[in-house]
Structures are given as structure tokens and as C-alpha cells.
Amino acid sequence: MDLFSVGRDSKGQPLAVRMRPTNLDDYVGQQHILGKGKLLRQAIENDQIGSLILYGPPGTGKTTLAHVISQTTNAYFLKVSATTTGVAELKNIISKAQDRLKFQQKSTILFIDEIQRLNKGQQDVLLPAMEDGDIKLIAATTENPYFEVNGALLSRSSIFQLQPLTKDELRQIALRAMNHENGLLDYPHQISEQALEHLIETSNGDARVLLNSLEFAVMGTIPNAQGIRVIDLQTMEDAVQSQRINYDKSGDSHYDVTSAFIKSMRGSDPDAALYWFARMLYANEDPRFIVRRLIVHASEDVGMADPTAMLVAHAAANALEWVGLPEARIPIAQAIIHIATAPKSNSVVKAIDQAMATVEQTQAEPVPKHLRDSHYSGAKELGHGDGYLYPHDYPYHYVKQQYMPNNVKDQIFYQPTEQGREKHIKERMDYFRKQIR
């Protein structure tokens, strides 16, 4: 049984639905898992699939692949949406699957779209049935399943990651839709190469966006005197309006783009850092989140090699509060360029992390008496401050003196590098440390 059936000759269905393939030969993309000889393809063709989790951005073919499986399997195939199902319905589905297997010797494949929307209790309901073989689960999710799906359910499933479609794959899908009887063949049209390129570029690897925009452009265009719908670049730009960016501020793409942004600054690539910054802005990321990352990485990746990076990062944060977007994009971009092009040093991170580890692993001995506060009443009688040497009374405003408890007095946390301004700091600190030690 196939509950995906939608009446493929019905022009009332969206183009993306009408063009959904029914076999692997018509399926476009994901050759890394569905190419000739690949294990998943063989399992589908031999009707020997186990439980699967299909993970990838929207429009990459997760539901379409489930549809292909529904057309090729001999199992009873049932589709539910995680947004509308509950524990009672899942239990009812499992009970019927058990009866079907017992009395008809027919297995059941349950397809759950957006499985990350099932809570832990709902996901747990599936586990015994999967364990006993009462059902096989095919789940689709746009979120990283390792974050969103129970570990026990993950361990019972094979996970396949689907990638955004390439431009060539999108072109293949568009051309097929333009010339297919279930597509736009009944609506004579001409699409310029510029318009097609714009459609492909702005679809951002998403076949559903591509087909929806294509259908809107064709159906929204008035035929000319010859009955042809002519779609030029301007028409396609009007149909697309703006590029859709796959970016969930609480999901996997958020962390991936943020990681790329940070690593680009750390890697001294201002162009890449600006690109990822633009991606975040386009997707309406909270700009305060962005400038917070700048402040952190001005210290973490630049640090004392260029202490002004921290000032510039704070200036960008201040500009955001005073000016706001879109104008604040300019000082934020300046800060990004400053951090990306600055000499790099992570000595600050190493220093504080080592200091924290030392505090955690050693006894907290009392503060040496000469460093204790001597200003309150009775402090001097206790000997607080006795023997303290005031550095400003000495040449170069420096005097040899112990500043740490005896059990850690030989520890060195801050190790200046040879990068930028830190090279001069290193020379100064090497001289001082020789005097102390």
C-alpha cells in the first residue's frame, strides 16, 4: 500500500509533488549513497532495507527517497508527520503492524517526517517495535540526528546524510519539469539561459524551492500572441524575489555557519569571514550573537599579538547598540577584517586555562603576607604588607619580588609568542622572569 499516492496527472498538485520520481533511475542527486553499486541503493532495489534516518537540508530529497521506497517495497508503507502524531496514534500503528505481521506475514515500514519534533516519550514508544522487528522506521529530519534523536533509536538505525543538490543536478530537475507531461509541458514557455541560471543559483541546493519558483514564473506569465510564456531574467527575479538560506538559528546549520565564521577569522581569511557574516545577516541571525563572538575571538585568536583587536571588537558592539542595523554592518565588518588580518596568538587562552588547572589541582595556600591588604584597621599589626616593594620606586618601574604562594611560585602561565606586538612583550617578560627566578 502506498499512502504517498497523489494522482500524478492532477494539475492541482504542486509541481514539486507532480514531478516526484517513483524509481531510483529518475531520482536526482545523492550519488554518494544512491549511485550504482552503493549499499543503500542495493538494499532498496532488493527490498531489504532496515530502519533508516535520512538527514539533510530541506529540498534534498528525503521525502522523495521515502516515496521511491514506498513504490518499490512489498511492505505495507505508512506515512505520518511528527507535527501531528502522538503516543496514542503511534501505539495504534504498532499494534496494527504486529497483527499484519502475525496474520498476513507482511512487514510494515513507517515513515516519520521531521522526527526531531517527536519528544523523547514519543520516540521511546517506537523502540520495542523496532527491536522486535514489528516495524521498520524511515525517519527524515533537517536537524542533526545526533542532537535531536534518542541515542537508543539512533543505535537501531542506519543514518544517511543527504547533501544540497549541485547546480548541474538542479538544472537536470528544472529541464525535466519543463518538458515532462506531469510538469509544465502543457504550458508552452521559453526561459532564457540567464533566467534559468538565476533560478538555479538562488535555489541554494533546494529542489523544492527550484520547482516552486519555476512553476510560479511560468504560471504567472501571460502568454504572448503566439501563446508562448516568455520568462526572461527580470521575470525570474520577480518570481524568486530573494534567495532562501538554509539557516535555523537553533539548529545544526547555525552551529556549522558559526564554526566556519570563527575558523575563517582564525585562519586569517577576511573574505571568507565576511562571506559567513553576510550569510548570518541574510538569515536574520541575532547581531548581538555575532559581536559576542568577535569579542571572544579578539582575545582567543589575536590576544596580545594585537591588543587593539579587543578594542575594535568592543567598538563594533557599541556601534550596534547605538546605530543598529543595517548601518552597524559596516563597523562590524571592520572588526571582522581587523581580527582576520591581525597577527594571531592564542597565548591568552593557554595562560588562563593553565592557571585554572593549577588552581584546581593544587592546594590554595594563603596569600603571602607582603601582598595582603594593609589598609584596614589592625592589618599592620598582623604584619600585612610588611616587606612589600613598590615597583614605581625602582628603575624601569620593576623590582624583583614573589607574587605567588610558595607551592606555585615557579609556575609560568603566560608564554608570549613572536607574533606582532607580543614579540616585544616576550623580550620584556623574558628579562623580568630571569630577574625573578
Explain this structure.
By secondary structure, the chain is an alpha/beta fold. The chain has four domains: 15-161, P-loop containing nucleotide triphosphate hydrolases (Rossmann fold, 3-Layer(aba) Sandwich); 167-240, Helicase, Ruva Protein, domain 3 (Orthogonal Bundle); 252-341, Zinc Finger, Delta Prime, domain 3, CATH 1.20.272.10; 347-436, post-AAA+ oligomerization domain-like (Orthogonal Bundle), CATH 1.10.3710.10. The chain is 49% helix and 7% strand. A five-stranded parallel beta sheet has the order 2-3-4-1-5. It has a two-stranded parallel ribbon with strand order 6-7. Helix 10 packs parallel to helix 12 and helix 13 (252-266) packs antiparallel against helix 14 (270-282). The protein is elongated and about 95 Å long. Residues 5-9 have low confidence and may be disordered.
Provide a quick synopsis of the model:
With 437 residues, the protein is an alpha/beta fold. The protein has 19 helices and 7 strands. The chain has 4 domains: 15-161, Rossmann fold; 167-240, Helicase, Ruva Protein, domain 3 (Orthogonal Bundle), CATH 1.10.8.60; 252-341, Up-down Bundle (Zinc Finger, Delta Prime, domain 3), CATH 1.20.272.10; 347-436, post-AAA+ oligomerization domain-like (Orthogonal Bundle).
Give the topology, please:
Blueprint: H1 15-18, H2 31-34, H3 39-45, E1 52-55, H4 62-72, E2 76-81, H5 87-104, E3 108-113, H6 120-132, E4 136-141, H7 145-148, H8 151-155, E5 158-161, H9 167-178, E6 189-191, H10 193-203, H11 207-219, E7 229-231, H12 233-240, H13 252-266, H14 270-282, H15 287-302, H16 308-323, H17 329-341, H18 347-361, H19 422-436
Parallel strand pairs: 1-4, 1-5, 2-3, 3-4, 6-7
